Amino acid sequence: MPAVTPKLLLRIVLLGLGVVLLQVAAVSQIVIFGASADLTPLVVAGVGLLCGSITGAIFGFSVGLFFDAALLQTMGLTSFVFVLVGYGAGRLRELRDPQAVVVPMIVGALATAISTFGYGLMSFMLGNDTPVSFLLLRVILATIILNAIISLPVFALVRRWLGPVLPEDPRRRRRRRAYTTGGLSPLTRA
């Protein structure tokens, strides 16, 4: 897990405040194919992928709590779901160190699925009046597809915002150095 420096902490806090305000004020008002995009699980997964599991879980909890307070929802439901999203994305980074281009798209779709189904399930278990129908399933699937499409630019923006203050990961530096030898392996002879 990279060390969280004060500059990184400040950027993470500003990112969390900005994404919740942008989601509540603007993005949730735009409807495409019957669904609106949800930036919050994408940003939480992006922070988890870039900063690790503990930072992703803490960021997810904070963003979820602020999101619940902003929408006057049951406090803690979104926090619980976003803790799972942030921790899961961070564990993927720590265990597999994914480098493929499609990783943000897959993680974004999974994060959206976990957050929408998780929030619906938790809300249903608490006895809230949650309408369960095929129309809801269609909207959830449309949201997952929409978020999978926009996950690449969202993850690129998160990486651009946090990149200058992220500490260098020694595993990536070692891997990069190994590829720059120019094929001078003692196992291959010319």
Q: Can you characterise this structure?
A:
- With 190 residues, this protein is mostly helical.
- The chain is 71% helix and 0% strand.
- The chain has helices at 6-25, 39-51, 53-71, 77-96, 103-125, 134-162, 170-179.
- The longest helix is centred in the last third of the chain and has 29 residues, at 134-162.
- It is globular.
- The N and C termini lie far apart (41 Å).
Tell me the fraction of residues in β-strands, as a range: under 5%
Q: Helicity range of the residues?
A: over 70%
**Main structural class:** mainly alpha
Strand count? 0
Radius of gyration: 19 Å
User: What's the shape?
Assistant: globular
Distance between the ends:
41 Å
Mean pLDDT: 84
Q: Flag low-confidence runs.
A: 173-179
Quick one: biggest sheet? none
- How many DSSP H or I helices? 7
H/E element sequence: HHHHHHH
Quick structural gist:
The chain is mostly helical. It has helices spanning 6-25, 39-51, 53-71, 77-96, 103-125, 134-162, 170-179.
Task: Summarize this structure as a short list of keywords or feature phrases.
mainly alpha; 190 residues
What does the secondary structure layout of this molecule look like, with pairings?
Elements lengths: L5 H20 L13 H13 L1 H19 L5 H20 L6 H23 L8 H29 L7 H10 L11
Helix pairs in contact: 1-2, 1-3, 2-3, 2-4, 2-5, 2-6, 3-4, 4-5, 5-6
